[in-house]
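From the methods appendix. Each design record in this collection lists the tokenized structure first, followed by the designed amino acid sequence. Records were kept in a plain field format so they could be parsed without special tools. The example shown here is representative of the layout used throughout.

RECORD:
FOLD TOKENS (328 positions):
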């Protein structure tokens, strides 16, 4: 039975969500949907903080220090629709006594599927092939046509071994017989590594020279900004590929452009960009770069599950219990 909250909290949903979850939100809360489906600006956010009990933002809402610059917010909960929350100034939320939740688990498989899609596409030159065929330029099979790199049996470096990193290891190890190297900010339990016959290395600098593929699965934010910079791209093998489904800022895009220009790495697959949805025109120049518009969690099943996860967090919070996915 649906949980009925006595005083229907006033809730702002900043983007359009899958219909079934929007219906549940409208049923349980005094819900306002941003029907324009546009990202919120810091000024709009400041205004919303004075009017809503809870705000349900996404990665496109820039909840920066400036956005929290008000004296006494009405808002008590930011229930983010998404697992990454580096777009929210957590310290500012905490300073105002505002709780923050996210949506882990439900998107790990689909995000890892997409990372594997990018990895396969770039290694097997699938984007290039599709563009050629659609342009009517395919002249037929030949032994030297669009020859890519074999994936099976190669070494994959996973940066960040949380839920999504582990889902990636699962696919790469069991599906493609890849050897898994892991770099993570803390020590990963041996039994977790053993599941994928993975080996943890101490530093990113140890990992990069040893890998044929490097896939980013760490959080974004200031701490990991430009984790992959020009020095580290130089540490990669010249026939290696970089995959990023984490956050745009973890890769220095200018350094990546340089690295691709001088063929210091073989290619890259990106689902996220620094300053997205703007994509640096320089990135468009490379055929050995696969570019996708932040599709990691974009399946009907996952987007609905993410909404349901937010819903549970909001309900728990206003019922007075601790939401399962509280991050601050
Ligand atoms: C996530 O869940 O972090 C996605 O990138 C969208 O925010």
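DESIGN:
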């Amino acid at each position: 039975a649906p949980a009925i909250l006595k005083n229907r909290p006033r809730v702002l949903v900043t983007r359009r969500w899958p219909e079934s979850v929007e219906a549940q939100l409208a049923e349980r809360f005094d819900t306002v949907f941003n029907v324009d489906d546009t990202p919120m600006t810091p000024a709009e956010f400041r205004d919303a903080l004075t009017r809503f009990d809870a705000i349900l933002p996404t990665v496109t809402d820039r909840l920066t220090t400036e956005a929290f610059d008000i004296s006494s917010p009405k808002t008590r909960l930011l229930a983010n629709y998404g697992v990454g929350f580096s777009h929210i100034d957590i310290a500012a939320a905490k300073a105002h006594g505002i709780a923050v939740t996210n949506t882990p688990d439900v998107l790990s498989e689909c995000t890892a599927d997409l990372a594997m899609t990018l990895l396969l596409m770039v290694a097997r030159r699938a984007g290039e092939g599709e563009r050629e065929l659609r342009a009517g330029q395919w002249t037929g099979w030949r032994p030297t046509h669009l020859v890519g790199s074999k994936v099976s049996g190669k070494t994959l470096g996973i940066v960040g071994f949380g839920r999504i990193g582990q889902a990636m290891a699962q696919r790469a190890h069991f599906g493609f017989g890849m050897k898994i190297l892991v770099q993570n900010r803390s020590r990963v339990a041996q039994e977790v590594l053993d599941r994928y016959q993975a080996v943890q290395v101490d530093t990113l600098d140890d990992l990069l020279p040893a890998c044929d593929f490097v896939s980013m699965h760490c959080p974004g934010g200031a701490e990991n900004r430009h984790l992959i910079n020009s020095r580290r791209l130089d540490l990669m093998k010249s026939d290696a590929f970089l995959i990023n489904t984490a956050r745009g800022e973890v890769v220095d895009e200018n350094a990546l452009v340089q690295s691709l220009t001088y063929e210091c790495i073989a290619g890259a697959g990106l689902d996220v960009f620094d300053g997205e949805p703007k994509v640096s025109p320089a990135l468009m120049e490379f055929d050995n770069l696969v570019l996708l518009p932040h599709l990691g969690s974009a399946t009907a099943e996952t987007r609905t599950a993410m909404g349901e996860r937010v819903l549970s967090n909001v309900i728990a919070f206003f019922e007075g219990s601790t939401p399962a996915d509280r991050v601050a």
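APPENDIX NOTE: The pocket of (2R)-2,3-dihydroxypropanoic acid is lined by residues 58-59, 82-84, 107, 296-297 (CB under 6 Å).
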